């Protein structure tokens, strides 16, 4: 049995990759990073994070630096002329940064649009809650929160999907001119992560020391009392077993994030941008889209550093940046878990029956 291990992450290997003792995963990571020209910031700020193959949230900055230190090399082949997406009339439709949008920071622009979406969502959520007679949450006499259930989660989730499309439009200036399949892929890439980031932000803000998840703007799931979530289900035993398992997994991912230092509103808005710009490579987005997303990601980090120095007057903000990266990684993991959960429920309980919007959003 081979005793060779990857010098980057200690995973067992049989052959070399990119001329050093490395695994395929680390070599692929390095190759993607070089091709994209990406820059990373150490999650903990010390540039000495331990990299292990079993760690789902390994620091990408330290992983990349370790690849370089061990002599990993990849030379990008001669670049081809960039492909241009066109509509039926032959007009180029790739997103571009318009001069007008540069007058305001990207974080501020997205923040302003988020506040607009919140106003619309609150109006629609309150109407839904009144129509379906959801009960007020316990021990929240000052705040407006209601106890959600299985039906309300999906009813209100549909509202959030429809009203949050404008957030992606505020990040990608010509988003509405892209081909439909690309628009759908970009939005799905964004929304599951953003839903989890919003959950962490609002839960930490209102219920930091309670065993509660915020399920929408004004509905919650009380983890010690999940009975309301079973009220509309026929096969309660099967559903309860599945829900208990998924709730435990969500708690393992999200609760540590909720207990971190509270996000400021600006940091939350920055994470909203990052949830859109950290594109999932499995979707095989066009190179131009990936390049634009990476450029906006870099811009957000520049704006964040300016905010920390001039807004919060911090000399050392490595911990805050590290927390943001931890939340971003956790939200990505939780977003994927949500898709797994919804697809299971769709199979077992047919919850998407007749609902094309939800069916398309949670499809493979």
Task: Calculate the mean pLDDT score and round it.
Answer: 82
Give the strand content. Answer: under 5%
β-strand number: 3
What would CATH call the architecture of the largest domain?
Answer: Orthogonal Bundle
The structural class is mainly alpha
Low-confidence stretches: 78-102
Number of helices: 10
Name of the CATH class of the largest domain: Mainly Alpha
Structural notes for this entry:
The protein has helices at residues 24-36, 60-69, 106-132, 150-171, 180-207, 236-258, 265-277, 287-311, 318-349, 356-361, and strands at 146-147, 212-214, 219-222. A hairpin with a 4-residue loop joins strand 2 (212-214) and strand 3 (219-222). The chain is globular, with a radius of gyration of 22 Å. The two termini are 38 Å apart. The relative contact order is 0.12. The chain folds into two domains: 1-79, Erythroid Transcription Factor GATA-1, subunit A (Erythroid Transcription Factor GATA-1, Chain A); 99-361, Retinoid X Receptor (Orthogonal Bundle), CATH 1.10.565.10. It has 364 residues and is mostly helical. It has a three-stranded mixed β-sheet with strand order 1-3-2. This is Nuclear receptor.
